[in-house]
Amino acid sequence: MKITNAYVNITSPGRNFVTLKVETDEGIYGLGDGTLNGRELAVASYLTEHVIPCLLGRDPFQTEDIWQYLYRGAYWRRGPVTMAAIAAVDVALWDIKGKALNTPVYNLLGGKSREGVMVYGHANGKDIEQALDDVARHTEMGFKAVRVQSGFAGLASTYGVAKGAGRYEPAERGLPTENEWSSELYLRHVPKLFRRVREAFGEDLHLLHDCHHRLTPIEAGRLGKELEPFRLFWMEDPTPAELQEGFRVIREHTTTPIAVGEVFNSVWDCHDLIRNQWIDYLRMTLVHGGGFTHIKKTADFAALYHVRTGFHGATDLSPVTMAAALHFDLAIHNFGIQELMPHSVETDAVFPHNYTFKDGLMHPGDAPGLGVDLDETLAAKYPYQRAYLPINRKLDGTLTDW
């Protein structure tokens, strides 16, 4: 079997997606997701101009060699654009493998380690009362784990809270919007939020919270300590992780579990975090972490240090990545939990898939390969539209982490 063609599809059914399609001389094709929120065209160009010409004529079963060729052979390694492009290729090749062997990808990764994949949903509200209502809605839907965010007095908006009646979607058409931020107000608010959630929903519901890189290590240590009575499943992205040693400070001040890594793109981004046991869950996703070939090695390394996975699963990752993540989650031993932000009806129609949700668990389905496809005719009806994530400024105007 040889690769005969590959091309990029860019579509925007409510938000932008970059999809790589790799075709072979036996009529089997595979799909990979190359979406990088707010920088989609950079990955599309990298794939089209620099990667695809190197794929033609190669054996798609040689996933390890092709991965190393694209990573080491380029000399300029790592970075979100490069790793998203490599991931798109790698996932597409594993999709081809599964289809050629007539088996779901999870069987190529070692087979099922569990019967279903626990996922967490996103509950939010403009204040605590609305957030409680949304937690109730998620429990009625069957979720066993819920991430909770809410707005609070003093800020017009905050991360994770929908601005209107629809679903929360951070990326917005046009140029980046600017939001205000105050860590002081936030730190006073969050313990009150989770006290109310525990009082209303008891001990059985898994609760998660995302700080979204906005705190200093000592602020995060303080927050984690104040949240200990409410037994969170995790506190996510408490501080920017460029300085991995900063997480030592957090670990020394709290036993609240820590999750980090949705912006990581290689094992080196989390090497010290894992080997020093400064984190409990790794959030790096397949699409930004180099695909199955690299993420499997990273997860195996994490397992040596009792670190489990908790992959990013926001709407900026297409159903191709969600399917891939579920195959991976089902197979590996040190799985922890999977994020789920449901896609829009339009997105689901463009990417028909076999994965399902029931009673708080998801399953990738048993179709050969990934079990997800791309309706290119429908995708063409949704042309690319420039969109960006917001930026954040403190109340005095200082630019800070969004």
Q: What report would you give on this structure?
A:
With 402 residues, the protein is of the alpha/beta class. It has 13 helices and 18 strands. The chain has 2 domains: 3-104, Enolase-like, N-terminal domain (Enolase-like, domain 1, 2-Layer Sandwich), CATH 3.30.390.10; 108-368, Enolase-like C-terminal domain (TIM Barrel), CATH 3.20.20.120. The radius of gyration is 21 Å and the shape is globular. The termini are far apart.
List keywords for this structure.
single chain; 402 residues; alpha/beta; Enolase-like, domain 1; TIM Barrel; 2 domains; ten-stranded mixed β-sheet; three-stranded antiparallel β-sheet; globular
What can be said about the biggest beta sheet? 10 strands, mixed
- Unreliable spans are none
Mean pLDDT: 96
Examine the secondary-structure arrangement and name the CATH architecture of the largest domain.
Alpha-Beta Barrel
CATH superfamily name of the largest domain? Enolase-like C-terminal domain
Q: Which range does the strand content fall in?
A: 15-25%
Shape: globular
The helicity comes to 25-40%
Q: What is the structural class? A: alpha/beta
| CATH topology descriptor of the largest domain | TIM Barrel
CATH class of the largest domain: Alpha Beta
Number of domains: 2
Number of helices: 13
The Rg value, from CA coordinates, equals 21 Å
How far apart the termini lie comes to 46 Å
Number of beta strands: 18
